[in-house]
C-alpha cells in the first residue's frame, strides 16, 4: 500500500490500490480485539486518490460529501467494485461510531438495484436494514482477491445494524421495536459470544416488558449458546427475584459465584473473521447490561437475599465469608459505590450483626458493632446541624464548594446513623444476654448520639435533601427508646420506662409496639384505669389503616429489620385478658 500510494494516482492501478487498502484496513481491524474507534483515514485518502486520478479535488469536503462526489462523478466501470467494497468498510466504521444516518445515506448511494425505490423501507420494515439488504454485492475478480468477502461483510453489517438499533430502542423504552430488532440480530451472522449477548439483551427487554417467563427463555438460550456469558446468569437471578422464587434465585446466584471464582476459559483458537460484529457494537447500555459482577458482589447478594428471606444460618455464613473478603483487601478489587451491588461497608457490618443477632450469637454482635462504632466516632462532629441550604445554593458561589459541603453533611448523617445503629444492636444483644443494665447503657448512648442532630428550616422539618437519612435516624431513636423502656421494665424502673414509651409515641404517634408497652407500663404502675383507656384506644384503631401507614414512605435499611422484630410486643394476649377482666369487674361494681 505504501508503494502504491507513493506513485501518482492513475486509473489503471486504482482497482489494485483500493483492493489493497480494503485488505490492509481489514487486517488492522482484525488484529485488535478492541472495538473500532475514530475515523478510517485510509478510506478518505483512497477517495482523494480516486478524485486525483480523475482530475478533480475534494480536500475541503467532509467524508460523507466526499463519498457522494466520488460515487456520482466517477463513472469508471473498473472502479465500481473496489469502491463498493471500500464503501462497505466505511459503513462498518460509521456503525461503530453510532452514525446510523451516515450509513443509511451511504447505502442509498451504493445501491445498484434496478428499482431505486427498492432500497427504501416498506411495510414497516426498518429503513437502514432495508438499505443494507438491498445493496447488491459486486462480484470479486480473480485477479484481486479479498481477505474477507464483501458478502460476509454485508451480513455482519446487517447483524450489527439490527443489534445497535435494538439497543437504542431498548434504552429509549420502545420495547416492542427493540425486541423485533434484537430478534433480527439473533438470526444474523455473528459468533457464539455475540449471539449469547443478543439473547441476554432480548431477556432484559422482555423483563422490562413485564414478561418474566419470556425473559427466562431468552436468558437460558444465552447460557446454552455460551455459558461464559455470566451476565445472563445474573439477569436470571434478577428475574427469579422479581418472581419471588427465592430458592431458584439463590441457586442461580450460587452458580454465578462459583463460575466467577474460576479462572476465565482460554480464548478459542478456531479461525475467526477479520471484521466481526463485536468490533462494531460498543454502547453504554450494552456495557451496563453485560457488566461482569465481582465475586464479592454476588457473595453479598447471597447474604442479603438469605437474610431478607429469613434463612438466618445461610445469611450468617455468607456475611462472614464476605467480611473475610474485606480483610483480603476487597476495597482495591471492586468499586464499593456507583454501579456496584455493594452497599457502604458499615452497612454490611450492621447487616451481618443483624444476622448474627437472629442466630443468637449476641457476643459476636457486640464485637462487630464495636468495630463500626470505633471507625465512625472521629467522623461525627459534636453538633450536626441540618439546615435549609437551597437559598444559599442559588445565590452563593462557587456552587461546587457548596454542593461538596452538602454531600459532606449527608455523609456525616450516614456516619451518625451507622454509629447509633451500632449502639442499638449492642443494646438488644446485651438484653438477650440478660444484662439489662448494660443494655440500658447502650440504648442511652444511642439516644445521646442522636441528640447531636439539630434540624433547622421551615417548621423544623428535614429538607428533602436529607429526608431519607433523617427518617432513618428518627426510626433508630424510636427503636432505642422502646428498647430502653423494655429494659427499665425488666429492672422494675416502671416510671422511667413509661417516660420512654411516651417519648416513643411523640416520635411515632400510634406506633403499636410503643402503645402496647405504654399500656403495660401503666398497668405495672397500678394506673389500671389509664391502662384500660389506652388499651381500648389501641384496640379501636383500624388494623387496615395501620398497615397502610406502615406501607407508606421509604423502606428502612435491612440492618434495622431485626430491631423492628425485637420491639414487637410479646404479651398482647396476657395483657388483653388482664385488662378485660379488670373492665368486667369494674362494670360489675358499677352496676351493683
UniProtKB/TrEMBL annotation:
Keywords, sorted A to Z: TPR repeat
Cited InterPro entries: FANCG, TPR-like_helical_dom_sf, TPR_rpt
Record GO biological process: interstrand cross-link repair
UniProt xrefs under PROSITE patterns: TPR
A single GO cellular-component term on record: Fanconi anaemia nuclear complex
Swiss-Prot/TrEMBL TPR repeat ranges: 478-511
SMART domains: TPR (SM00028)
The protein's name in its UniProt record: FANCG protein
Organism: Pardalotus punctatus
Lineage, opening ranks: Eukaryota, Metazoa, Chordata, Craniata, Vertebrata
Protein's gene: Fancg
Amino acid at each position: 500500500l505504501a508503494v502504491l500510494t507513493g506513485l501518482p494516482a492513475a486509473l489503471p492501478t486504482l482497482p489494485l490500490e483500493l483492493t489493497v487498502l480494503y485488505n490492509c484496513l481489514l487486517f488492522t481491524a482484525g488484529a485488535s480485539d478492541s472495538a473500532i474507534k475514530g475515523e478510517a483515514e485510509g478510506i478518505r485518502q483512497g477517495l482523494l486518490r480516486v478524485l486525483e486520478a480523475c482530475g478533480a479535488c475534494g480536500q475541503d469536503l467532509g467524508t460523507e460529501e466526499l463519498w457522494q462526489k466520488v460515487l456520482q462523478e466517477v463513472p469508471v466501470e473498473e472502479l465500481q467494485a473496489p469502491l463498493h467494497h471500500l464503501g462497505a468498510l466505511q459503513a462498518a466504521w460509521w456503525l461503530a461510531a453510532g452514525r446510523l444516518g451516515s450509513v443509511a445515506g451511504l447505502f442509498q448511494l451504493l445501491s445498484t438495484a434496478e428499482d431505486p425505490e427498492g432500497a427504501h423501507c416498506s411495510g414497516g420494515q426498518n429503513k437502514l436494514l432495508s438499505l443494507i439488504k438491498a445493496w447488491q454485492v459486486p462480484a470479486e475478480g480473480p485477479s484481486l482477491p479479498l481477505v474477507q468477502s464483501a458478502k460476509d461483510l454485508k451480513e455482519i453489517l446487517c447483524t450489527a445494524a439490527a443489534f445497535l438499533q435494538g439497543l437504542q430502542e431498548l434504552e429509549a423504552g420502545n420495547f416492542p421495536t427493540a425486541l423485533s430488532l434484537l430478534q433480527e440480530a439473533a438470526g444474523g451472522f455473528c459468533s457464539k459470544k455475540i449471539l449469547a449477548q443478543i439473547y441476554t439483551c432480548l431477556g432484559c427487554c422482555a423483563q422490562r416488558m413485564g414478561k418474566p417467563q419470556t425473559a427466562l427463555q431468552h436468558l437460558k438460550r444465552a447460557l446454552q449458546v455460551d455459558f461464559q456469558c455470566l451476565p445472563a446468569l445474573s439477569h436470571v437471578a434478577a428475574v427469579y427475584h422479581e418472581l419471588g422464587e427465592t430458592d431458584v434465585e439463590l441457586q442461580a446466584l450460587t452458580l454465578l459465584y462459583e463460575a466467577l471464582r474460576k479462572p476465565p476459559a482460554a480464548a478459542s483458537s478456531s479461525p475467526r473473521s477479520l471484521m466481526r460484529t463485536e468490533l462494531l457494537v460498543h454502547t453504554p447500555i450494552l456495557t451496563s447490561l453485560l457488566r461482569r459482577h465481582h465475586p464479592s458482589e454476588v457473595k453479598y447478594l447471597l447474604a442479603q437475599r438469605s437474610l431478607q428471606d429469613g434463612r438466618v444460618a445461610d445469611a450468617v455464613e455468607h456475611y462472614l465469608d464476605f467480611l473475610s473478603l474485606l480483610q483480603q483487601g476487597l476495597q482495591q478489587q471492586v468499586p464499593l459505590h456507583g454501579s456496584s451491588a455493594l452497599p457502604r461497608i458499615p452497612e454490611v457490618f450492621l447487616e451481618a450483626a443483624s444476622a448474627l443477632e437472629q442466630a443468637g450469637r449476641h457476643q459476636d454482635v457486640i464485637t462487630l458493632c464495636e468495630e463500626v462504632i470505633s471507625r465512625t466516632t472521629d467522623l461525627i462532629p459534636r453538633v450536626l446541624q441540618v439546615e435549609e441550604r437551597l437559598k444559599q445554593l442559588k445565590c452563593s458561589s462557587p456552587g461546587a464548594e457548596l454542593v461538596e459541603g452538602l454531600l459532606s453533611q449527608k455523609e456525616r448523617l450516614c456516619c451518625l446513623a451507622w454509629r447509633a445503629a451500632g449502639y442499638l444492636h449492642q443494646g438488644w444483644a446485651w438484653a438477650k444476654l440478660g444484662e439489662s443494665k448494660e443494655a440500658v447503657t447502650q440504648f442511652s448512648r444511642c439516644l445521646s448520639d442522636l441528640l447531636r442532630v439539630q434540624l433547622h428550616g421551615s417548621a423544623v422539618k428535614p429538607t428533602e435533601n436529607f429526608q431519607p437519612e433523617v427518617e432513618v435516624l428518627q426510626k433508630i431513636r424510636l427503636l432505642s427508646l422502646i428498647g430502653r423502656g423494655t429494659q427499665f421494665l425488666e429492672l422494675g424502673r416502671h416510671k422511667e420506662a413509661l417516660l420512654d414509651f411516651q417519648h416513643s409515641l411523640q416520635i411515632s404517634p400510634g406506633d403499636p409496639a410503643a402503645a402496647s408497652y405504654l399500656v403495660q407500663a401503666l398497668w405495672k404502675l397500678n394506673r389500671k384505669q389509664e391502662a384500660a383507656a389506652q388499651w381500648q384506644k389501641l384496640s379501636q384503631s383500624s388494623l387496615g389503616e395501620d398497615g397502610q401507614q406502615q406501607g407508606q414512605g421509604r423502606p428502612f435499611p435491612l440492618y434495622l429489620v431485626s430491631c423492628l422484630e425485637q420491639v414487637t410486643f410479646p404479651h398482647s394476649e396476657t395483657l388483653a385478658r388482664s385488662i378485660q377482666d379488670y373492665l368486667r369487674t369494674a362494670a360489675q361494681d358499677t352496676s351493683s
